[in-house]
Amino acid sequence: MVSGKVNPYKFSERREQKRQKRRWRSLKGYWQAGLCSTILWGIWQLTNAPLWYLYSLDQVTIEGEHLLTEASLKSHIKLPFPQYVFQAEPKTIGQQLQTQAPLEAVEVNRKLFPAQLVVKVKERIPVARAMYRGKNGYLDRYGIWIPASSYPQKLTPPLAVLGFSDHVSRHWAELYPLLASSPVKIHQVNWLDANNLILHTELGIVHCGDYHQDTLISQLEQLDRMRELPKYLNSTDVRYLDFRDISSTTAKFRSSIP
Fold first, then answer.
1. Mean pLDDT, rounded, of the chain
2. Which site in 28, 41, 65, 198 is 20 to 30 Å from 150, CA atoms measured?
3. Which of 105, 176, 167 is nearest to 139 (CA)?
4. 3-state SS class at 4
5. Are 239 and 221 spatial neighbours (Cβ–Cβ below 8 Å)?
6. Burial (0-12, 13-18, 19+ Cβ within 10 Å), 17
7. How far is the first Cα of the chain from the last one, in angstroms, to the nearest whole number?
8. Residue 125 gets which letter from DSSP?
9. Which of 3-12, 42-51, 93-102, 234-243 has the highest mean pLDDT?
10. Long-range contacts of 198-203 (CB under 8 A, 24+ apart)
11. Contact assessment for residue 77 and residue 92, using Cβ atoms and an 8 Å cutoff
């Protein structure tokens, strides 16, 4: 026969086990909360440590400069100091530099240990001299005009442009490669008259008329075939070569002799 009485010792033992489990859960919760607080405090301390801050432009490194100087480029970067390194906006810094300096592209990267900014630049390389609104300057390969004051030293590209305007700028990106690759050396481009492209070459002055890419290619090829011209003509007696009618088998000579 089974007795209905509960063993008081077993009941007390189970109650103590439950009590221990509750204590363990409480201790585990306190331990987890303390660990999380410690980790968060550590992260806060780490992220606010001095080594994560920018204190001056000495922590900015410029790479890729050749015609420009590191000091001149840094002078265009406007940052409040001290500043948490992750607060520095690469896009904003890039825009500041491209607005103020002759640069094709700018890449800005944040670096740690120690905190610094690395700025990689691609300069605009002057390929021609050109005046614009009475000021001396240069053209890059895309037809962008750059004030001469943008560079710390005077530059002397071998090509000069007269009559720089929006018209020249629009066509320069396709015109310049033709001039640069011409077998006959070209010293100057005169586009004062938008309807007559005039080239000053080693063989003399050439009037090309209205500019068309295909036409100019043919004109330069014809000019190359006339390399022996100085042997048969006195250059002082020829004002210019008239290539405006390229369909003609022989270019016309505009003589300076009456």
1. 85
2. 198
3. 176
4. coil
5. no
6. exposed
7. 149
8. P
9. 93-102
10. 198/240, 203/227, 203/229, 203/230, 203/241
11. no
Q: The whole model's pTM is what?
A: 0.75
**How far is 128 from 138, CA to CA, in rounded Å?**
6
The size of the chain, in residues, is: 258
Rounded Cα distance between 148 and 162, Å, is: 16
Beta pairing partners, 134? none
Q: How far is residue 174 from each of residues 62, 128, 136, 161, measured CA to CA in Å?
A: 32, 14, 23, 15
Amino acid, single-letter form, for residue 28: K
Q: Both tokens of residue 102?
A: 């002759």
**Which residue's entry shows tokens 């691609």?**
122
- CB 219 within 8 Å of CB 248: no
